[in-house]
Write a structure and sequence with these properties.
Layout lengths: L4 H16 L5 E6 L16 H10 L6 E6 L6 H12 L8 H4 L4
Parallel strand pairs: 1-2
Helix pairs in contact: 1-2
């Protein structure tokens, strides 16, 4: 399915407006490379304007942030960024490997 540019922008605005309603800590990670092979630059679903619309629509605060991830969604670095973004609002910094250790 292919949606038109106006629908992409409307979707970005809709997501951003909903994220802006959240009072608690929220992080929305946006991969810069792509989410799928069709979303890569110069491919059928790539739409930088919709991403810009989403960024403009989110009222970012210290607890509500949209974070651009420079890797592909499937890269290990993206997974690490997702975990870090999840833990940050709660002050958690330890890794899973160290979580079960006893001294």
């Amino acid at each position: 399915m292919r949606i038109i540019e106006a629908e992409n922008e409307e979707t970005g605005r809709w997501i951003g407006e909903r994220l802006s309603l959240v009072d608690g800590p929220v992080r929305f990670l946006l991969p810069e490379i792509d989410i799928s092979t069709l979303d890569q630059p110069a491919k059928a679903f790539h739409d930088a304007q919709a991403e810009a619309t989403l960024e403009r629509a989110v009222r970012q605060t210290s607890s509500r942030r949209l974070i651009r991830v420079k890797q592909h969604i499937g890269d290990p670095e993206s997974a690490a960024a997702i975990v870090a973004a999840f833990r940050a609002p709660h002050g958690e910094t330890r890794t899973r490997r160290g979580a079960g250790r006893r001294e």
